């Protein structure tokens, strides 16, 4: 029988910033090491003006700061016809917080951020890449309406096939 972990009592999602560099790096190394050197890459994206980063914090005691447990990174890119595509560049949950719904909450929040951005930008779709071997993430993305795109998907630096998925906004 599969063990089910308890959901955090409270989860807050806030805007990420320079103070989160070490957390982003550590989780990137723990979660994405098999794909490539994301421990080096993702902290630079956190500090990039064109990337919107959010951090999920587990609130242990009301009124106190939270413990960071995951993050998302969104980019917005122009495409022909004066439209934009939102790209979920990264979604990661610290290993000790996985299996408790944090990833689902982060993905839900990212989708809401893109829907909110549609008030200012003509965003056609939300895209992401996922390793073909990451069945758990592919399933989660599917429950949010993401579908596999046709075409050549390429490979991560670690050799895994990168699948591209999208959902209309």
Structure description:
The chain is built from four helices and seven strands, in the order E-H-H-E-E-E-H-E-H-E-E. The protein has 169 residues and is of the alpha+beta class. The protein has a single domain (11-168), classed as Gcn5-related N-acetyltransferase (GNAT) (Aminopeptidase, 3-Layer(aba) Sandwich). The chain has a seven-stranded mixed sheet with strand order 1-2-3-4-5-7-6, with helices on both faces. Helix 1 (21-32) runs antiparallel to helix 2 (38-46). It is globular and about 45 Å long. The protein starts with 10 loop residues before the first strand and ends with a strand.
Record the strand order, biggest sheet. Answer: 1-2-3-4-5-7-6
Instruction: Determine the oligomeric state from the structure.
Output: single chain
* Percent in strands: 25-35%
Q: What is the annotated CATH architecture?
A: 3-Layer(aba) Sandwich
Which sheet architecture does the biggest sheet show? 7 strands, mixed
- Low-confidence stretches are none
Topology as H/E string?
EHHEEEHEHEE
Number of helices: 4
Residue share in helix: 25-40%
């Amino acid at each position: 029988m599969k063990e089910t972990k308890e959901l955090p009592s409270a989860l807050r999602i806030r805007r990420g910033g320079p103070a989160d560099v070490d957390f982003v790096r550590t989780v990137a190394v723990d979660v994405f090491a098999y794909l490539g050197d994301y421990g080096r890459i993702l902290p630079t994206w956190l500090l990039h003006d064109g990337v919107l980063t959010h951090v999920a914090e587990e609130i242990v005691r009301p009124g106190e700061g939270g413990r960071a447990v995951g993050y998302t990174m969104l980019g917005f890119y122009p495409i022909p016809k004066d439209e934009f595509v939102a790209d979920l560049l990264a979604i990661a949950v610290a290993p000790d917080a996985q299996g408790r719904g944090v990833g689902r909450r982060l993905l839900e929040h990212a989708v809401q951020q893109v829907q909110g951005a549609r008030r200012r930008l003509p965003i056609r779709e939300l895209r992401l890449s996922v390793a073909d071997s990451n069945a758990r993430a592919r399933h989660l993305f599917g429950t949010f309406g993401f579908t596999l795109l046709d075409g050549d998907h390429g490979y991560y630096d670690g050799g895994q096939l990168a699948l591209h998925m999208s959902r209309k906004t």
